[in-house]
Every structure is written in structure tokens, then in C-alpha cells.
Task: structure prediction
Amino acid sequence: MLEKNHEYIRYVLPKGRSFNELKQKDATLLMNYINSEARDSLNGHTPFELSQLLLDKELHKQLHLKAIKPDDVTLMPALLR
Result:
């Protein structure tokens, strides 16, 4: 799954673009979008859906984890502009 996450990160932050300017809110936004992308390896479910089954709700709150509606998931550079 890490390989796929890296691929998704590069959709938004293409090779050559610096990560130095990223703020925590940017990383959290990117994480929420990536984890809201359905995966074949999860039988069409999202990592976020799986995390709801396995992790404490308080952890979701503390890490600002939230689902993005499927139609709103966009993994392009414009996400962080």
C-alpha cells in the first residue's frame, strides 16, 4: 500500500517539486484525499473506511482524519494550491 500512496503523492506533488513549503494542514489534506481513494486491494473500499473499523474514533479526531466524498477526490497539483 505504501507504493500506491507514493504514487498518489506524486500525482499532487510531481517529482521536482519541493516538499519544503508544505505545512501540516497541507499534509493532512493530502492524507485525507489519498485515504479516501477506493483501492482494488481493499475490495473497492478506502483506507479511511478500513481505519474506521480498526482505529479509535478519538484517534481520528486527534489526527483530523476525515473522509472525502468519492466525487470530490482529486489527486492533482491543484489540490494544494
User: Anything to note?
Assistant: The chain has a mean pLDDT of 95. DSSP finds four helices and no strands in the chain.
